[in-house]
Amino acid sequence: MTEERRTAIVTGGARGIGAAVAKKLASDGYAVAVIDLDESACGGTVDAIEAAGGSALAVGANVADEASVAAAVERVATELGEPTVLINNAGITRDNLLFKMTVEDWDSVMNVHLRGSFLMTRAVQKYMVDAKFGRIVNMSSTSALGNRGQVNYAAAKAGVQGFTKTLSIELGRYGVTANAIAPGFIETEMTAATAERVGIGFEEFKAAAAAQIPVNRVGQPEDIANTAAFLTSEGAGFVSGQVIYVAGGPRD
């Protein structure tokens, strides 16, 4: 880090992976804007950051809405500082088998993951280019490789990877890197909801997943946060256009 505090934006920062990433970046010295659809839901993350001596701002925004994104990023730049680090983490699932999947299920997942990442990145990149420094980390998933019942989510996460690689090509000359993290099984509210939906107790669900993972455990949000911390660091300036599978074993 330089002496001047940099500002980071984490979307979907109210809970789970996003909250862990926001807290980690704050502990590394960033001022962190925590963006989520419900601004009040960001309070826990912001309070934890401030209690630890960090600086944070809760911002409510719909990442799939152009005007909402523009207003949110402008507010961050004005109230917290011009953002040069962006974590595109906001995401939803609308799982179903193809023949049961509605157009709304497809569109809502695409809008949050892909349109949201595009709108946020387009709004923030100007601050990165001006600063001649930027770090973009997009959240993909091992589901990008294909996962039954997730044709929408898998397609969106695969799209995030192509989006990331193209960003690295376009923005690299300005000192901006773009990388993607593809988590495997991470213990969050989202995976707990998946277990409930398929009718399996969460502990049993985690145990079954861990048995298939070489390191013999499921992931924690902090595992993703630690990877994001590296990718946003000064030392990661020669790492760009990469997809890092943080899944406890090889996935590619």
Give a short account of the largest sheet.
7 strands, parallel
Could you state the order of secondary-structure elements as H and E? EHEHEHEHEHEHHHE
CATH top level class name:
Alpha Beta
Q: Which percent bin holds the helix content? A: 40-55%
Residue share in β-strands:
15-25%
Mean pLDDT: 96
Q: Give the spatial strand order of the biggest sheet.
A: 3-2-1-4-5-6-7
Query: Any idea how many domains?
Result: 1
CATH superfamily: NAD(P)-binding Rossmann-like Domain
What low-confidence regions span 5 or more consecutive residues with pLDDT below 50?
Answer: none
Number of strands: 7
Count of discrete alpha- or pi-helical segments spanning 4 or more residues = 8
Structural class: alpha/beta
Shape: globular
- Report the radius of gyration as a whole number of Å: 17 Å
CATH topology: Rossmann fold
Termini separation = 32 Å
Architecture, according to CATH?
3-Layer(aba) Sandwich
Describe the structure.
The chain has a single domain, classed as NAD(P)-binding Rossmann-like Domain (Rossmann fold). Helix content is 45%, strand content 16%. The protein has eight helices and seven strands. The protein has a seven-stranded parallel sheet, sandwiched between helices. Helix 1 packs parallel to helix 2 and helix 3 packs parallel to helix 4. The longest helix is centred in the middle third of the chain and has 29 residues, at 103-131.
